[in-house]
Amino acid sequence: MKQTDFVGGFAKGLQVIEAFNAATPKLTITHISATTGLDRATARRCLLTLVELGYARHDGKHFELTPKVLRLGHAYLAATPLPRLIQPHLDALSEEVGQSASASVLEGTEIVYIARAAQKRVMSISLMPGSRLPAWCASMGRVLLAALPEVEARAILERSQLHALTPFTRTTVDAVIDECRRVREQGYAVIDQELELGLCSIAVLLVDARGRVAAALNIGASASQIPAAQMPALYLPALRRVQAALRPLLHPADIRSDSPTA
């Protein structure tokens, strides 16, 4: 892209929006400036612009986003057929196995949920389309990373903030790469309480008829009810059926341009 085509003010506004998250839903100008690296005056102008447009509100000290921001994410979901294709299959899968099922895509160092069918809550946070999790310690992230050329997967991991979320979390790039190699060989990923204590999950790729990766599909369960070692025997056949059913339905237009290739 030509430098003259880059709109710096727009980019800064997006940086400000992305500074808000579940841990910090309310932020001051100082916090926004520190988080984004923008100077205070620029952060202030961006925030006041968002307030004027209805995307944020201000109580005199703190700023927080309003529900209007959901329009931005809804535009992607409405314009992309992939979530609509997947959702009925997720619903049926969740009913069949009696567990929550989800689909996500890789976005930078994170996975972004694009569809979900929840049976029971197994995580401390509520997951829904648009939710994000670190790719390196999530089962869907592992299969998506494993589908990339190893040099690309390593580059993503080196940009990630690897740290121990639980005593079971793999916290080095080499350890995650080694696991990705196993995932690539066996065709699925199992996470045993690496993301959150008490949670295990299993994931596979969703690919089109030409083998291009569209998304990842997973089933999550309570580790106290379903040990991770039992997940392939219990859930992999059902995941494979959904994988096979969706394969002929997926087309190039359904797939993100930056999706990895299997």
From TrEMBL:
Keywords, comma-separated and alphabetical: DNA-binding, Transcription, Transcription regulation
SMART domains with a match to the protein in the record: HTH_ICLR (SM00346)
Annotated ranges, domain HTH iclR-type: 7-67
Ranges for domain IclR-ED: 68-252
Gene3D superfamilies: 3.30.450.40, Winged helix-like DNA-binding domain superfamily/Winged helix DNA-binding domain
Transcription regulation found in the keyword field: yes
BP terms from Gene Ontology: 3,4-dihydroxybenzoate metabolic process; negative regulation of DNA-templated transcription; positive regulation of DNA-templated transcription
One GO MF term: DNA binding
InterPro entries reported in the protein's UniProt record: GAF-like_dom_sf, HTH_MetabolicPath_Reg, PcaR_PcaU, Tscrpt_reg_IclR_C, Tscrpt_reg_IclR_N, WH-like_DNA-bd_sf, WH_DNA-bd_sf
A Pfam entry, by short name: HTH_IclR
PROSITE patterns in the record: HTH_ICLR, ICLR_ED
Domain of life where this protein originates: Bacteria
NCBIfam families: pcaR_pcaU (TIGR02431)
Protein name: IclR family transcriptional regulator
Species of origin: Ancylobacter defluvii
